Amino acid sequence: MPSNKSVSDACITQFINCRILRDHCLQREDLWVRDGKILDPEKLFFDEHGYADKCVDCEGSIIAPGFIDVQINGGYGIDFSQACDDAGSGVSIVAKKILEHGVTSFCPTLVTSPPHVYHKVLPQVKVHDGGAHGAGVLGFHLEGPFISLEKKGAHPEQFLRTFSSGGLRDLMETYGGLDSVAMVTLAPELDGSQSVIRDLCQKGITVSLGHSVANMSQAEEAVQHGASFITHLFNAMLPFHHRDPGIVGLLTSDQVPAGRTVYYGMIADGIHTNPAALRIAHRAHPSGLVLVTDAITAMGLPPGRHTLGQQVIEIQGLHAYVAGTKTLSGSIATMDMCVRHFKHASGCSVEEALVAASLHPAQLLGLSHRKGNLDFGSDADLVLLDDTLNVKATFISGEEVWRK
Fold first, then answer.
1. CA-CA distance, 81 to 78, in Å (whole number)?
2. How far apart are CA 274 and CA 271, in angstroms?
3. R_g (Cα) of the chain, nearest Å
């Protein structure tokens, strides 16, 4: 039997002197972890007569669930949309670096690319848990190429595709396979898109609407077929119009099936979305807001020229443009920056800012039974923050993986 009389030989860690985010409130209580999971202390005390083997003094920090970034194109000189023989090592470099920004899980995102890029990259990266080696990979987010020509943004026009072969066949021809795919962004107004949405959802793949000129009824039909996310709300879609709000209208639509939530990504970097627009979205539909970085190769690097898939990107200050244009192409923001800016710009509570980067993306991907919260039995992926939401330390499965 273990020395502390618990039913397991695994080390029990007690985090003390902290405020933990639970049930949307910061609560001043300890957090207990064993075997990488959050432990119910009452069961430990009364059923097992156990106690902690190790104590971590958090010095008054906030403990929140680890951040989850469902849209990140690369960073630190790595471009996920480049066909290379060591795509896995590139993903690993980014996975390691984003630990310092509180990210414990992410979806490597590929922008519109020619088929050979998907065929080369997708088989090299598998879904896997995080650890000291870096944040966990939840699956790829494939943003395009089945998107609108009019709202292509920084996506290269020559590689855009339609569903000309019947839908699922187009996906397989383009991507090569869907085994490690968590999410696909498409334009719901494309002919054949509704059957594709239904097929993807049946495979457990999240469908997001974006880079689109869809009207509201087309967007609502897509949601009724299973779509559940909006890629970077307001960006690369028709602007809100009072007679036909388009995709933006999903935030308050009465045609969303009962029990379903439409989530929406916001790039809260102070550049992609005016603070007033951020406030409008949050106040209209706070439970659907998901913070994303949409970060590109240049995140963590000095200004200059970099790549995003097949495009050359120029960094000017905090702006990322397609070279020679004023077309925004992703961001260089980190997730902790987005959390802080979102709280400042929206006037929301600390708790709301934190759940937008953790619980909501977990719910979107159907992972909230084990990630995005500090419930008993959930994965002990944690971020320690000070009162101004600067990251002090990051833990995955209860083990420290980064400290400032």
1. 9
2. 7
3. 21
Contacts 24+ apart (CB under 8 A), 83-89: 83/113, 83/116, 83/117, 83/120, 83/121, 84/120, 84/121, 86/124, 87/120, 87/121, 87/124, 87/125, 88/124, 88/125
Contact (CB, 8 A) for 138 and 105: yes
Q: Are 84 and 90 in contact (CB under 8 A)?
A: yes
Residue 86 catalytic? no
Q: Is the pLDDT of residue 156 over 70?
A: yes
Q: Does the predicted TM-score (pTM) go above 0.90?
A: yes
Q: Report d(CA 292, CA 265) in Å as an integer.
A: 6
Backbone angles phi, psi at 64, to 5 degrees: -120, 160
Confidence band (pLDDT; 50, 70, 90) for 393?
very high
**What tens digit of pLDDT does each residue of 134-145 get?**
999 999 999 999
d(CA 91, CA 87): 6
Name residue, tokens 């987010």.
Answer: 141
Kindly state the tokens that stand for 245.
Answer: 């709000």
353 contacts 342 by C-beta, under 8 angstroms: yes
What is the predicted pLDDT for the residue at 47? 85
User: Rounded to 5 degrees, what are φ and ψ at 217?
Assistant: -65, -35
Element (H, E) at 193: helix 193-202
Pick the catalytic residue from 79, 170, 269, 294. 294
Beta-sheet pairing, 289-291 with 263-266 = parallel
Report pLDDT digits (tens) over 291-345.
Answer: 999 999 999 988 888 888 888 889 888 788 888 898 888 899 999 999 999 999 9
Q: Which amino acid is at 195?
A: S
pLDDT band at 2 (very low <50, low <70, confident <90, very high): very low
In angstroms, rounded to a whole number, what is the distance separating the alpha carbons of residues 73 and 45?
45
